[in-house]
Structure formats: structure tokens, C-alpha cells
Amino acid sequence: MTNSSGRHVEAFGLASVVELINEWGEVPRAVADEADAPYPEVTAALQISADDFRSRYGAPTTAALRTAADALYPLFGSDGPAMVEAIGRLLTSTALRPALIARDADTVDEVWECTRAADRLVAGAVLSIVEHLRFDGDVTRLGVCSGDDCADVYVDLSPARRRRFCSVTCQNRNRARSYRRARAEHGDS
Could you tell me whether strands 97-102 and 8-9 are parallel, antiparallel, or unpaired per DSSP bridges? Predict the structure, then answer.
């Protein structure tokens, strides 16, 4: 959300960050052989109304969405030091910074500010990841799919903390390929 001066940025849901990366990121689209496929409807994919998107991040251009997705992709599948460094670079490049505002005469609130409108989409997504890491610092829970033909990202929210695939579909596809390979190696048909 932005304030009247348009500088305040709020985190958006991690599911929307994942969708942004998977639907507009160059690597996930190329690995899935979707580089030439049309992009989805922005507001449906990111689960936000068109008015909310425009008021928070400006006009949803494909170029801006691709740039944001490609900037965020390296955060997933990184180890702790690499993630910290990548987040630091994004915080610096977007000039995202905490600030205080007076809600009324007796109360202040923490907000995040990003002065450049072009950086607000990346800033909101980075803020989402930072807030997630604040409550669960396990960076291995922000992963890249282990599927053979997939490079989609995911957030592992499972109790076992063992997720390796972006979806059950990718997991089943990978199991079926492994099964067929094993049968072929043993001469079974």
C-alpha cells in the first residue's frame, strides 16, 4: 500500500512473490519451454485487483514484471550468506528503508519507504521475503524445484521441511521418469 505521497510500501503475500517469479521470470519460463508463451493476466496471477496493483506499483507492464521476477529469482535456492548478500543488494538498489509515521498524537507506526515508483514492485516482494525470514530464518525453505524440466520457485511451509518440488505435479512427473529410467536400466519394458 502507498500513502498519499506514494512512498510507503507493504509486503505482499509470498504466494504472489512465487507467482511473479514463476510466471514472468526468464529462467523458469525458459526451463519450462514457455519463453514464447503468453503471460498470464497480472491481477489474477498475483491475486490483487487492478486498482490495487496500479496504486501500489504503477502500470503492470510486462517489462517491469520480468525485471522484478529476474531480480528476485536468485533469492530462492541460495544459502544463507548468498541470500543475505542478494537481499542487501536489492534493499540498496531499491532504496527500501524503514521509517516511522505518526498515526495520531500518541502513536507511531513503522512503515517502509521506497521513493522510486519503478522500484516498488521489487521492494514489496523483497519486504515479503524479509518478513518471512524474520519468522523463519531457514533459507532452505525458499527453494527451486528439483524437477527435471522445471526451475519454478516455492516456499516450503510443510511441517517436515523436506519439500523439493514446486508442486505435486512436478513431484509425480519426476517419480514417473525415475521409475521408467530404472526399468529401462534393468531391461524391463
Answer: unpaired
Q: What is the DSSP letter of 162?
A: -
Residue with cell 527435471: 148
- CA angle at 110 for the pair 104 and 114, rounded to the nearest 5°: 115
Angle at 168 between CA 135 and CA 165, to 5 degrees: 55
The residues near 189 (Cβ < 8 Å, ≥ 6 apart) are 183
The number of CA neighbours under 13 Å toward the Cβ of 136 is 15
Cα–Cα dist 153/161, whole Å: 15
Q: pLDDT tens digit string along 123-134?
A: 999 999 999 999
pLDDT (tens digit per residue) in 173-189: 888 888 888 888 887 65
Judge whether 1 and 111 are in contact, CB under 8 Å: no
Residue 156 to residues 50, 72, 149: CA-CA distances in angstroms?
A: 28, 17, 20
Residue 2 confidence class, pLDDT cut points 50, 70, 90: very low
